[in-house]
Specification:
The protein is α/β, with parallel strands linked by helices. It is elongated and about 90 Å long. 55% of the residues lie in helices and 8% in strands.
């Protein structure tokens, strides 16, 4: 790269940034104070992007992970902002040279505007529940935004105040409407607590050798507590798996689901937990491929595999290549593929399967796991993230929707999914996130099996409906249609 050219470009960049700052803050400025060139347009866009990326990283709880969805969102916002500037310039009657000047001057104002937005967001986080403070933190920046856009049009294009104000209002109105049609995603997100506050610190105190040696007796003890099937009754068995051991949210979910199913679906002494968490190493077997296979085999031995059903609930992080995260810090464990899960189920001989996978990109599990005897529910599509995990979370969004909001009130597994998916979609729209798009696959045979099981007297599923729900919703035949 030519050194004089680089020096010239950096000098022009400094001039443009200072001119943009003066324009935004009401200091004297003219259109001739900017350095106009295509190179400077590229430099200003690159500077704004790098500046925002660094600022977003610094304001995210560490350790922070980069989100490609956030990159897509940022690109869409930048493109929309540039198109809006060109639109108002054209409406003001600007030709190509003036439109280019307007675009460059607006880019020069972008970094200080980004800084102001992030400072506002940080202030809102400390505003508490005071609505007046929250409203003020948004109204004042909008007024300021209106001011410097109006000043931009007057300074660069030389048009009247009234017309500049009207065009600035149009720009702001369309820009704010993007909050509803462009799903918001952050560039960085926090997915784990800081080391000194995380379960890593507890794991460092554990003996990994003892941990592995303890697995066999922990699993044998858990399986020994499972009751045999009851002839003539469709019993439901539950296996809940929490894969990621460095966040309590997954332990919270498997614990809650076991309690819910023991209470509502008659799985007491027919439910088992595999979970990775430093606080439960003496209570539950670890979640890993070998324990999963052995647990499924042990459950199958106690089932009537021609009649009884398994509800397999798996909650953890997920990856784009469709792997279920099995992570216990310094304990070496391998992630699970859907093919490995399918193989373990097939080897155990379990026929009737309800499988719920709550993780990012979990829709990729459907194709390898589906068959006529299986209902599969996933928290997200194959190419989408799900939300609600993290160091500060107590329950994932999909877990809340399906198990707390839907299944706790609507016992039919399929209809509960419809309620949960609707709840998740509404929440993501409110939070301006990209839709996770929960998925389901219903095998023909399992669909009929569930319908009959929920309606047949003597079924374990049927008998699980408690009297209070029956009194609230009406006869048993209406319960599976009872709204939440």
């Amino acid at each position: 790269m030519d050194a004089p050219w680089l020096t010239e470009q950096l000098t022009a960049l400094r001039i443009n940034l200072l001119a943009g700052l003066r324009l935004m803050t009401g200091r004297p400025i003219s259109r001739d104070d900017f350095v106009y060139s295509l190179d400077q347009g590229i430099w200003l866009i690159a500077f704004a992007f790098v500046f925002e990326t660094i600022l977003a990283y610094l304001t995210t709880e560490q350790p922070a992970r980069f989100s490609t969805y956030g990159l897509n969102y940022l690109g869409a916002i930048y493109l929309l902002d540039l198109l809006l500037i060109l639109l108002v310039g054209r409406l003001a009657g600007a030709g190509l040279p003036d439109a280019g000047r307007l675009l460059l001057a607006s880019l020069a104002m972008t970094p200080p505007y980004i800084l102001a937005v992030y400072l506002i967001e940080q202030s809102m986080g400390h505003a508490g529940d005071n609505p007046a403070t929250a409203w003020g933190l948004w109204v004042l920046p909008v007024i300021w935004h209106l001011y410097f856009l109006t000043r931009l049009l007057i300074t660069i294009l030389g048009i009247r105040v009234g017309k500049s104000l009207a065009l600035a209002l149009l720009n702001i109105a369309i820009g704010f409407s993007s909050l509803w049609f462009l799903p918001q995603n952050d560039l960085w997100y926090s997915d784990a607590p800081a080391y000194e506050e995380s379960p890593y610190a507890e794991l460092s105190k554990l003996s990994i050798e003892d941990l592995f040696y303890d697995q066999q007796w922990l699993l044998n003890d858990a399986l020994a507590g499972l009751e045999e099937n009851r002839p003539g009754i469709t019993d439901l068995y539950l296996l809940a798996v929490g894969g990621y051991g460095l966040e309590n949210v997954f332990l919270n979910e498997v614990d809650y689901v076991q309690q819910l199913f023991d209470r509502r679906f008659d799985t007491h002494n027919r439910s088992l937990i595999l979970v990775n968490n430093p606080g439960t190493v003496t209570n539950y077997p670890m979640a890993n491929r070998h324990n999963l296979a052995d647990a499924l085999y042990g459950i199958a031995e106690r089932m009537d595999i021609e009649e009884d059903m398994l509800f397999l609930f798996m909650t953890s992080h997920g990856s784009r290549n469709h792997r279920f995260s099995v992570d216990f810090g310094p304990v070496p464990l391998d992630d699970l593929s859907p093919e490995q899960i399918r193989q373990a189920l097939d080897d155990a001989g379990i026929r009737w399967r309800v499988i719920v996978v709550s993780s990012c990109y979990s829709g990729g599990f459907i194709e390898p796991l589906k068959d006529p005897y299986t209902l599969i529910i996933t928290a997200a599509a194959a190419d989408r993230q799900s939300f609600g995990c993290g160091a500060e979370s107590t329950f994932t969004d999909f877990g809340t929707a399906y198990f707390k909001h839907a299944l706790d009130k609507q016992p039919d597994f399929i209809q509960a999914f419809d309620l949960a998916a609707s709840w998740v979609e509404e929440k993501e729209q409110r939070e301006r996130r990209q839709s996770s798009m929960p998925q389901r696959y219903v095998g023909e045979a399992i669909h009929e099996k569930l319908r009959v099981s929920f309606q047949t007297a003597g079924s374990g599923l049927n008998s699980s409906i408690d009297d209070s729900l029956a009194r609230e919703c009406g006869p048993l035949s209406e319960i599976i249609r009872c709204p939440p």
